[in-house]
Specification:
Helix content: 25-40%
Structural class: alpha/beta
Number of strands: 14
Distance between the termini: 30 Å
Order of helices and strands: HEEEEEHEHEHEEEEEHEEHHH
Strand order of the largest sheet: 1-2-3-6-7-8
């Protein structure tokens, strides 16, 4: 990972901390069914914005999708008169289907994800036997972010940071004084993301998190999920670098890499797979699009039988 990228991100944050005009306006949309938070991030001066980690409602029992959650985002964008420049994913989610294509069709913007989505496509393309028609080059997305790549949302400076470990393709997006960190880390009382999906790695996750926690302590961190740790009454999804460094139960300052890896791998062995992992990953590696319809005009989700996701065998 590129240390210069982190330095650039820190400079963007520091500039925003002293100049309110450089800070984004952020609205979070919590989907309790999947414990996912989607965001609309915009520049108040230009009213240009981005959507991050949207959710398509999916009922596994009936195989039906709805756009209720995405509709809340569409309504908000419309009422605020925000022009959408980006529809972004932090990674290929395993717990919900992305609504990115629906929102892109309705609101515009470039569909974007990290460059290493190609690694995820390769692994899961084999697991789902997607065949030669399924491109494994990221071409389902309009833009693939590189580590340290600078971009803009209106007049707001932004930087993409590669933060693998949960999956090989995870990205964090720094926009002004805010960092949208996907599934790398959760609220301090809940800890960190699992690393037992294909291509996941506890050591990589530790290094990615410690990289993020080198950003200024006042950096606002926005999470992709909250599972309401025992004893906490309300859902929450905003924290700071300083709070994470002081209080995160898995990776606060002083926790060594070996200690974290031992904890994370032990904990991961006790976890069941997300209920929606099969439909979610299968769709999300296609940029949130359903598999092509068959000759009867219907799309189908494959469920591989007796296949280990750990090794694809």
């Amino acid at each position: 990972m590129n240390d210069e990228a982190l330095s650039v991100a820190a400079r963007v944050i520091e500039a925003a901390l002293v100049d309110e005009a450089r800070r984004p306006t952020i609205a979070g949309f919590f989907d309790e069914a999947t414990n996912t938070v989607s965001y609309v991030v915009h520049d108040a001066a230009t009213m240009r914005g981005a959507i991050i980690d949207s959710v398509l409602d999916y009922d596994a029992a009936s195989g039906r999708t709805e756009t209720r959650s995405a509709g809340l985002i569409e309504d908000y964008v419309g009422k605020k008169a925000i022009g959408v420049d980006w529809v972004m994913e932090t990674h290929a989610h395993a717990d919900h289907i992305s609504a990115a294509p629906f929102l892109q069709q309705r609101l515009g913007g470039k569909l974007a994800i990290g460059r290493d989505i190609v690694r995820v496509q390769d692994v899961f393309g084999k697991i789902f036997n997607a065949g030669t028609d399924f491109e494994r080059d990221g071409s389902q997305f309009d833009h693939l972010f590189e580590d340290g790549e600078r971009f803009a949302i209106g007049d707001l400076d932004a930087v993409a940071l590669h933060v693998p470990g949960h999956t090989p393709a995870d990205m964090a997006y720094v926009v002004g004084d805010a960092a949208f960190v996907g599934d790398t880390i959760f609220m301090p009382d809940f800890g960190t993301a699992r690393t037992d999906f294909p291509g996941g790695d506890a050591r990589e996750l530790y290094r990615s998190i410690r990289r993020l926690l080198k950003l200024p302590r006042a950096t606002r961190i926005f999470l992709c999920h909250d599972y309401k740790a025992p004893g906490r009454e309300d859902y929450a999804w905003e924290t700071t670098v300083g709070q994470q460094r002081d209080e995160n139960v898995h990776v606060h300052d002083g926790v060594s890499e070996d200690e974290f890896v031992d904890m994370r791998t032990t904990r991961d062995r006790t976890l069941s797979m997300p209920e929606l992992i099969m439909p979610s990953v299968q769709v999300n590696i296609r940029g949130g699009r359903l598999p092509d319809p068959e000759d009867n005009g219907v799309s189908y989700i494959k469920i591989p039988i007796n296949v280990s996701l750990e090794d694809g065998q």
